[in-house]
Specification:
By secondary structure, the protein is α/β, with parallel strands linked by helices. It has a single domain (7-120, 132-246), classed as 3-Layer(aba) Sandwich (Rossmann fold). It has helices at residues 67-76, 136-148, 170-179, 188-197, 220-246; strands at residues 7-11, 28-29, 32-33, 39-43, 46-52, 81-90, 100-102, 105-108, 153-155, 158-161, 183-185, 201-211. Strands 1, 4, 5, 6, 7, 8, 9, 10, 11 and 12 form a ten-stranded mixed β-sheet that branches. Helix 1 (67-76) crosses helix 4 (188-197) and helix 2 (136-148) crosses helix 5 (220-246). It is globular. The chain binds hypoxanthine (HPA). Residues 87-89, 162, 167-168, 184-186, 209-210, 212 line the site of hypoxanthine (HPA). Hypoxanthine (HPA) binds at residues 87-89, 162, 167-168, 184-186, 209-210, 212.
C-alpha cells in the first residue's frame, strides 16, 4: 500500500506519544484557531501531521471544538487523508468495551456547532454527497492494517454523534439503538462532514471504552477506566501497522 498520500491523525486523550514535541505549528484559518498547534510526528518513520482535538491540555469540550479550523489547517499543511481517533460507548451488542472498530455510517444528534464550511460567508454553497460519510479507501486501509497486526477490529457499524459533554440517559441510548446506532460518541460530527467538504479522505478508528448508558452492569466511568488501555493499545498497533504499510 505504499502511498503518496499525506496523512494526519486527529487524536484524543491518551495519545501523548502522538502529540509531538516542541511548539508545533499554529495555523490561522478563515475559521479561526485550531484546538492546538499542529505537530509532525514520525510513526514507523512516516511523517504524519498530528492535532490534539481537545487541545494540548484536554480543555476543549466536544461542542466547543473548532472542527472547521482544525481540518482547514490540516489541509493547508498538505494533508489529504485524516485518521480520526474517537472514543465511543457501545450501544448495540455488536462489540464489547476494550475493542476497536472502523464505523461505516453516522447519525448526527449534535446541535449549535459550526458544522459547515459552506456557511455563505464567501458566497459559495455546495451540498456534498454524504451518503458514505467515511472514505471507503481509508477504511479499507485501516482494516487491512488491523488484520495485518492480528487484531480483531470490527468492520462497520453506525456511529451516533451526541452533543455532550454529559453522557446520555438510558432512554436516549434506547432511542439511539432504535435509530440503528451501534456506537455513541461526541466528536465525529461535524468533523467527518467538514472533512468531506474540504475534499479530505476521512475515516474514524473508534476506541470502544464503555457500554453506553443503561447497557452495562458496571458504572460507566469504571468501565472506561478498565477498558481504555486495551482499546488504546490496539489503536496504536493499527496505526503503527498502517504506517508501516504506507511508507
Ligand atoms: N457516550 C458518548 N460519548 C462517549 C461515550 C458514551 O458513552 N463513551 C466515550 N465517548
Amino acid at each position: 500500500m505504499t502511498t503518496t498520500s499525506k496523512f494526519a491523525v486527529i487524536i484524543g486523550s491518551g495519545f501523548e506519544s502522538l502529540a509531538g514535541e516542541g511548539p508545533g505549528r499554529r495555523v490561522a484559518t478563515r475559521f479561526g484557531d485550531t484546538s492546538a498547534p499542529v505537530h509532525t510526528v514520525a510513526i514507523e518513520a512516516c511523517p504524519v501531521l498530528s492535532l490534539a482535538r481537545h487541545g494540548d491540555d484536554h480543555s476543549i469540550p466536544p461542542h466547543a471544538i473548532n472542527y472547521r479550523a482544525n481540518l482547514a489547517a490540516l489541509k493547508e499543511l498538505g494533508a489529504d487523508s485524516v485518521i480520526a481517533l474517537n472514543t465511543v460507548g457501545v450501544v448495540s451488542t455488536i462489540r464489547e468495551s476494550g475493542e476497536i472498530a472502523v464505523p461505516d455510517q453516522l447519525l448526527d444528534y449534535t446541535w449549535g456547532r459550526e458544522h459547515t464550511i459552506f456557511d455563505g460567508a464567501d458566497g459559495v454553497v455546495e451540498h456534498i454527497d454524504f451518503t458514505e460519510p467515511f472514505s471507503a479507501d481509508l477504511r479499507a486501509q485501516l482494516l487491512a492494517a488491523a488484520s495485518a497486526a492480528g487484531l480483531d477490529c470490527h468492520d462497520g457499524g453506525v456511529y451516533a454523534a451526541t452533543q455532550g459533554p454529559r453522557l446520555e440517559t438510558a432512554a436516549e441510548v434506547d432511542r439511539l439503538e432504535r435509530d440503528g446506532a451501534d456506537y455513541v460518541g461526541m466528536t465525529a460530527m461535524p468533523e467527518a462532514a467538514v472533512a468531506l467538504e474540504l475534499g479530505l479522505r476521512y475515516a474514524c478508528l473508534a476506541l470502544i471504552v464503555n457500554r453506553a448508558a443503561g447497557r452495562g452492569d458496571t458504572p460507566i466511568h469504571e468501565d472506561v477506566e478498565s477498558s481504555t488501555l486495551s482499546a488504546r493499545t490496539q489503536a496504536m498497533s493499527v496505526l503503527r501497522q498502517f504506517f508501516k504499510l504506507a511508507r
